[in-house]
Specification:
Blueprint lengths: L9 E5 L4 H12 L3 E8 L17 H14 L3 E5 L1 H17 L6 H20 L4 E3 L4 E5 L5 E5 L16 H4 L2 E2 L9 H10 L21 H9 L4 E4 L5 E5 L26 E6 L4 E5 L6 E11 L9 E6 L6 E9 L3 E10 L7 E6 L2 E13 L6
Helix pairs in contact: 1-2, 1-6, 3-4
EC number: 2.8.1.13
Keywords: ATP-binding, Cytoplasm, Disulfide bond, Nucleotide-binding, RNA-binding, Transferase, tRNA processing, tRNA-binding
Protein name: tRNA-specific 2-thiouridylase MnmA
Length: 376
Amino acid sequence: MTDDAPRRLRVLAAMSGGVDSAVAAARAAEAGHDVTGVHLALSENPKSFRTGARGCCTIEDSHDARRAADVIGIPFYVWDLAERFREDVVDDFIAEYEAGRTPNPCLRCNEKIKFAALLDKALALGFDAVCTGHYATVVLREDGSRELHRASDMAKDQSYVLGVLDDRQLAHAMFPLGDTLTTKAEIREEAARRGLFVAKKPDSHDICFIADGDTQGFLAKRLGATEGDIVDESGNRLGTHEGAYGFTIGQRKGLRIGHPAPDGKPRYVLDISPVDNTVTVGPAESLDVTGLTAIRPRWCGRPPTAGPATYTAQLRAHGGETEVTAELVDGAELRVSFAEPVRGVAPGQAIVLYDGSRVVGSATIATTERRVRAGA
């Protein structure tokens, strides 16, 4: 949160138990704000997660967050949002895979939990802002509106997973790490200087509610095994699988096809059909996407101008930018054309549009358009 005349705010710092959120809370307190730390209990049974789990919802994490709050010298609470998290994030994740789509639970968590359920509760209790350890920047314009921008350090930028935030949510968001032109090692050094125990704690890279990182196993336990066919683009049966939900568009490994393609080249997942439980595979060039249609657009501040316009787009959390032309149709559907074909684009993913460093907004990919190959 940026203001020309900074004032002391009541800030609720979401503390995951990791180093980034701890340093963010410390910086907010150091800036003179009245900070209270809160750890979100998102697992209905956090004790079931093994020691050393790679997510961020273990019982160990809540203890780490509490110790960090004690060092910073701020009040600390644990809020139970497990039921809301299960309904809005976990159940949605399972349903999306079951429907043949590839969701991003981190975006859903930011949209539905951290800047909805948590923010609503914070505002009801008289807090002015929710502070997190995300690397992004909120800019206050002269007209009082706010914009979300990429972090100063592109290597750590997390604006993609915040592209679902609307104007109201941005008005109460604080990202103290967004202007940091430092390496992660320097953030850890800062944590150590502040006496924060989490300074050497490894980063979490997996989906927080899948502690062992086995997404396919997690889905199999909930959706069951359902044998189906793996076919080529002509419909020829190449093998079988135990559930189409175990595949994603662009996947190469784990296809379990017993013989090589006639041309000797690798094959990739091109399509997932939950209706007939079929997975279609083919050559890499068949993954080329020239355009897409996305639904449920959400704008970070002011909406885009009417008519087609040129932006850059990001299609995954750690992906690069690509130039696109996008147009909002009937206020509900975003139609996007790529300047150059891109690969590995799957329905269910989010597309986030940028105007320079400014996040324009995001939408959920519904359908894609593939380039027709000669002789296909």
